[in-house]
Design brief:
This protein is of the alpha+beta class. It is built from four helices and five strands; from the N terminus they run E-H-H-E-E-E-H-E-H.
Length: 144
Amino acid sequence: MGVIIRDSKVEDFNDVLCLFGQLWPNKELNPNDLKLVFNRGIQSETDKYICAVENEKVIGFCALAVVNNFWQEGTIAYVYAMIVDDSFRGKGIGTSLLEMAFDIAKLMGCKKIELDSGFPREKAHNFYEKIGFEKRAYLFSMDL
């Protein structure tokens, strides 16, 4: 059985949580808070979660939100989480996840799809540029 790309389900959370540990290895994760965010996104009309599954285990995850954007004079899809398990990278899974995200964004009337990625994730940056993303801005962040 090969890799299947599908909509995420509430039951996928524990596998996704493990992937977050790979995405943010230096961050102390709060499973309870993350589960609240995950469940809220699953129920959202504007957020879409998709995952790559092999042998009933989630090995990749992509979360996107459709948001208003003045610069684009319409809506964009913003990918706010994207991760493929370390042992499955380089096999086209990330590309498949993003292709489904592109399809979702088009169906939802988005003019563009955007994402941000941490400075240390240079391999991810190369991957994004390889599939057509361009560096366009810096992300600025501040704790509240």
